[in-house]
Amino acid sequence: MPVLKGTKVSPGVASGPVVRLDRGIVGLHRIVSDPFRERALYEAAIVLAKDELRRLQQHAQGADADILMFQIALLEDESFTNEIGDYIAAGAGSAAAVERAEQIFAARLNNVDNDYIRQRSVDVRDACRRVVDILDGRPRQKLHLTRPSILAADLFFPSDIFSIDRGMILGLAADGDSDTSHAAIMARTMGIPAVFGLGKGAAAALEGREVLLDGLAGAVTPDPTPDDIVAANHKLALHQRKSRKQHELAGRPCVTRDGTRVRLGASASTPEDIENAMHAGADDIGLVRTEQLLLDHATEQQQYFRYISCLAAAAGSAVVVRTGDVGADDAAPWVEDVRRATENRRLLRTQITALLRAGTRGDLRVLLPMITGPEEWDDVMQEVERCKQRLDGRGVEYDRDLPFGCLIEIPGAALAADQIMDHGARFLAIDIDDLTRYTLAAGTKEDAKRYEHADTPAVRRLVNMVCRMAADRQVPVYMCGVKANVLPAMETYLRDGVRAFCMESAILNELKAGFLEVDLTEAPAEPPAGKALPLPVPAAE
């Protein structure tokens, strides 16, 4: 049998026998009762399924627990329950109604133009299969491996891995699946080599055979020779040596030489970005961009699943979502951006509603961009209250105390930061990139190059003023919009008192390496531009 090539999912090398997961056939010998009994059976099955998931969640950690949280959230979802209830009322059996809802909800996620979200359809199927198995009376016993083995399947459900002693899993091989599936995330988190996308029938063909699974090459070699195994292990050793230094730095907290703790968060656009940021050592996710969701006219349900997927990828760390502001990152006048955001109430209403619902599933916070003063802040907060009233009317659970903060990216917001906080902003994020551009009227990329150091006196004065206002009110503040070309200027703001920063994960450890060498009790090598006293700035929560 030739070498099978697939998608590199989790690095590592494993050799051993293949055990194939076979889920059998469902739906045999079903008897449909009257709608009232079928609805009662369904509700009892949901209670049992959620109880099983919660018991698994008690023994899970980090991303594993959040995967289970996603499945529990689906089973509690109002639209999911209504879809099944309507089909049962029309005369369908409860198991068939769940299978139909599984197809509908999985298809909705598959139609989203984002690979990570599309892969959540597997989690929908996993949760629904659990309910259907309960309704069909099928046993849900975990697979007991008698010796360490490589698991193979057409695709993996998260519960497939939860239910097996992880010490017995040498590797994972799948016909389908992708590198953004929850099974892939779990494999990387657990350090299990994995190769997915081997093609239809691969799992069946590999069953019972000795194989070499090479997660670095994305290949599975049936009946490997000793030389094949030696060569793969040598390649793995080289890979581990190359990445060891980066992993060591990622795992270290950011503490200056004098013992000052600095929080380093990451910005992201997708759950996959968040997963990569957490592996890079980010303390939290300080800014999640959502403009593409609005451009794609994502529904409330699609946004809700996106946000809880972000929380799952963050594995318990805080996630700050910036509400959509199409054009805010361009050099267009900010007044027009504010008008556009204010006028498009439908988009804002849908997004806030989805965020309020997702807030019950983890440490979620919301960042409002392009606020020029307290009046605009109050206007958005009134919309938040209306969204809460509508959710109360629908009887849908939501976070009644979801923290809202303000993005300080224009001079007007900086000058009015004290009033914005007094009107309820729970935290502030200073976008140093946009604040520099707008303060210095750098309307084009050519103009911006003249101010790329981001620590000019005017900008520093605005930053210092905002930080002092926040410190007086004990409101957390952090600096975002940090780019590679301004990393040297960040020591200036660190010395000024900023203790939390947010940037792309690719440069996070570069900034960390620089901060680890800083001693704030010593004078800087070169005097910073301008003059400012240290600020008692509270770190981001």
Report the count of strand segments: 16
User: How much of the sequence is in beta strands?
Assistant: 5-15%
What spatial form do the alpha-carbon principal axes imply? flat
Give the terminus-to-terminus CA distance.
55 Å
Radius of gyration: 26 Å
Unreliable residue runs:
326-339, 527-541
Structural class: alpha/beta
Across the major sheet, the strand order is 1-8-7-3-4-5-6-2
Mean pLDDT: 83
Number of helices: 22
Percentage of helical residues? 40-55%
The profile of the biggest β sheet is: 8 strands, mixed
Can you walk through the features of this model?
- The longest helix has 25 residues, at 226-250.
- This protein is α/β, with parallel strands linked by helices and 541 residues long.
- Helix content is 49%, strand content 14%.
- The strands form 2 sheets. It has an 8-stranded mixed β-sheet. Strands 9-10-11-12-13-14-15-16 form an 8-stranded parallel beta barrel, surrounded by 5 helices.
- It is built from 22 helices and 16 strands.
- α1 crosses α5.
- The protein is flat, with a radius of gyration of 26 Å.
- β15, α21 and β16 form a beta-alpha-beta unit.
Question: What would a concise description of this structure say?
Answer:
Helices cover 49% and strands 14% of the residues.
